[in-house]
Structures are given as C-alpha cells and as structure tokens.
Design a protein that fits this description.
The protein has helices spanning 3-55, 61-71, 142-182, and strands at residues 79-85, 90-95, 107-113, 116-124, 128-135. The protein is α+β, with helices and mostly antiparallel strands and 188 residues long. It has one domain (3-182): Beta-Lactamase, CATH 3.30.450. Strands 2-1-5-4-3 form a five-stranded antiparallel β-sheet, covered by helices on one side. Helix 1 (3-55) runs antiparallel to helix 3 (142-182). The longest helix is centred in the N-terminal third of the chain and has 53 residues, at 3-55. It is rod-shaped.
C-alpha cells in the first residue's frame, strides 16, 4: 500500500474514531440529564408522600393558621394540601397559591387546574382522603429543575472533560503508530 493511501486510511479511521467519541459523549450526556430529572422528581415526590403521611395523623389548626399567614405572600412555598372526610366534607385546605379538584386519583398523577399543571399525590385512609400537590410549571417548579440541573452537571462535567482528553489520546496513539513504522513515507 502506498504512503498516500495508508495516510488517507489512517486519517479516515481517526476521523471515525473521533466522531464515535463525540457521539458517545453526547449520548451519555443526554442519558445523564434524563436520569437527573427522574432522580429530582423522585426526591420531590417522596417529600410529597411524606407530607401526606404526616397529615393523615391530624393537623393542629393553630399551627396551620400561623403557617398559612406566614406563607401567604411567599413564592418559595409551592405546595397545595387538602384533606377531606370519607363523606367528602373538606376538613383542611392549605395553599399559598393554587386550588385542587375535589376528585382525587390515588397515588401520583398530574392535573391541570386553572391553566397550571400540578404533580399530585393522593392518599386514602379509613376516615379521610389527603392530597398534596406541587405546581410543576417551569417557572414554579424551579426547585425541581434546579436539583435536576445540579445532578446533571455533576454527571455531565466529567464527560465534557474526558471526551476531549480521549480524543487527544486517540490522535496521539495514531501518530505514535504512524511514527513507529505502522505507516512509512516513501523513501524511508
């Protein structure tokens, strides 16, 4: 095989290898972002479940009234909580900004209420139905998105640093192979 042909073959193989590294890094980053979003959602869903289980033991109304007054103007608190008796009478309602439908789907669901999307967890006991919901609109779901972004950055950062390093190593190995006699120039 002549020198130009072997050099072209080496360049083509190196180009394909570098492209494979880039595509793999992009795929890994996308998977990491998806997993980070799922992990953040599971953490916030767990908090909603814990809140519902805490409410099933009863709520001290003076404490909730004080909490309601304290959080009424707050944009940081985005949970909506409602408790109904088994007969459908509303026993408790707390919301900084938001309302939920009375009909509850047990477990997790997503509901659109008054032009807003909520992630809702509903729990039924022998005497009551409890709903805890969080607004998941992009501007209101900032804690979910912020946690997902942080988790994704922690996972993607090594990929961003290691992919170029791997590309340099692949190029260096290719050059060393060519210099060591794997590819000879004419007249040598």
């Amino acid at each position: 095989m002549t020198w130009p042909a072997t050099n072209a073959l080496r360049a083509g193989l190196l180009s394909l290898l570098l492209l494979a590294i880039v595509l793999t890094a992009v795929a890994q980053s996308l998977v990491a972002c998806q997993q980070a979003r799922a992990k953040a959602d599971s953490i916030f869903d767990h908090h909603m479940q814990q809140m519902a289980h805490a409410l099933r033991n009863g709520v001290a109304m003076p404490t909730i009234t004080a909490l309601d007054a304290e959080l009424a103007g707050s944009d940081d608190f985005d949970l909506v909580m409602r408790v109904w008796s088994a007969e459908g009478a509303r026993l408790f309602h707390f919301s900084a900004k938001g309302e939920l439908p009375q009909r509850a789907v047990l477990g997790f669901s997503e509901k659109r209420v008054a032009k807003a999307w909520y992630r809702v967890y509903a729990l039924q006991t022998q005497t009551q139905v409890i709903q805890v919901a969080q607004n998941i609109a992009p501007r209101r779901a900032a804690p979910r998105h912020a946690m997902a972004r942080t988790l994704a950055l922690r996972t993607v950062a090594p990929i961003v640093w290691l992919a170029p390093l791997l590309m340099i190593i692949a190029w260096w190995v290719s050059e060393r192979f060519a210099a060591a006699g794997g590819v000879r120039k004419p007249g040598r």
